[in-house]
Design brief:
By secondary structure, the chain is of the alpha+beta class. The chain has one domain. The protein has helices at residues 24-34, 91-98, and strands at 11-14, 44-48, 54-61, 64-71, 86-89. Strand 1 (11-14), helix 1 and strand 2 form a beta-alpha-beta unit. The termini are far apart. InterPro entries: Transposase_IS66_Orf2. Pfam families: TnpB_IS66. This is IS66 Orf2 like protein. It comes from Oxobacter pfennigii.
Length: 118
Amino acid sequence: MIGDITKAQGIYIVCGYTDMRKSINGLASIVQSSLGLDPFSRKLFLFCGKRADRMKVLLWEDDGFVLLYKRLENGKFKWPRTEEQVRDITWQEFRWLTEGLAIDQPKAIKKAKTGDLC
């Protein structure tokens, strides 16, 4: 199915600003040359521009790339700007981000690590 992001095996958010005029080749080039990651992996790569009301998502499917685009009409994405170049996020953090929330929710209960007993 075209653009089935649930099949992605990870989510990477590209912190900072991305030129939103870039198309598939330009975004794949950023992933490969600037970030040192494989754009042909089954991972979502998230990009956002300075206005923070638009997001592009790059995903490799077995026969080609899918480029998803989302524009918020009433608000901005809470995009991390000053952290490392790329950051691995969870599906929960991805949901928060697409709902206009910050991916770092200080009051959210974190999942327990197995083996962490009293």
